[in-house]
Design brief:
By secondary structure, the chain is mostly helical. It has a single domain, classed as Four Helix Bundle (Hemerythrin (Met), subunit A). The protein has helices at residues 2-31, 42-62, 69-93, 121-135, 140-168, and strands at 35-37, 101-103, 174-175.
Length: 179
């Protein structure tokens, strides 16, 4: 359990790094006249992602769940892969990446890196991580709860981003976003 808590601390640290990058990129976007979309669902997204980490820590301890190597090691590999995809998105979008949905007028949409093949590749990383991270230590209730709630939230979020992309096609441009 100690190794798993260390993993969760590393993921929490990664989230803090994301927020620092997002803060810097928000300033960059706003300085260029960005407009924010989806402000109303953002607190729910933050709460859900915080609850994921808390659930991952509490469920295995409270329910006495063991580490099962046949499940835990593949799940860990998926978590690492999801982090790689997430940071590929961040690197590809550069200062346009954000945890918020921001549109900077006049910028062309990004079609490089993972965005060549997927419209919302960062959300694939979120879905994989949200399933795999709890399963590293058999927190299947957390995995199931996160997946259901995240699906509902992503439905709202993707619609919001698609509306922002539609706006971008009329003179603005989406600044990349991710939960």
């Amino acid at each position: 359990m100690t190794s798993y808590l260390l993993l969760l601390a590393l993921v929490a640290g990664e989230r803090l790094a994301e927020l620092a990058v997002a803060r810097r990129n928000t300033a960059w976007s706003l300085a260029r006249g960005a407009r924010e979309y989806g402000r109303g669902h953002y607190p729910a997204m933050v709460a859900l992602h915080t609850a994921l980490l808390v659930g991952c820590a509490v469920e295995p301890w409270a329910a006495g769940r063991p580490f099962l190597p046949l499940l835990g090691w593949p799940a860990l590999a998926l978590v690492v892969g999801a982090q790689g995809l997430r940071w590929w998105c961040v690197a590809t979008l550069g200062p346009r990446w954000n945890t918020r949905v921001l549109v900077v007028p006049g910028l062309a949409p990004v079609a490089a890196g993972p965005y060549r093949r997927l419209r919302h590749p960062n959300y694939l990383a979120v879905v994989v991580e949200g399933l795999a991270l709890p399963l590293v230590h058999c927190a299947w209730l957390t995995a199931a709860g996160f997946c259901v709630l995240n699906a509902l939230l992503l439905r709202v979020r993707v619609r919001c981003e698609d509306a922002a992309l539609a706006y971008a096609g009329t003179g603005g441009s989406l600044v990349g976003s991710a939960p």
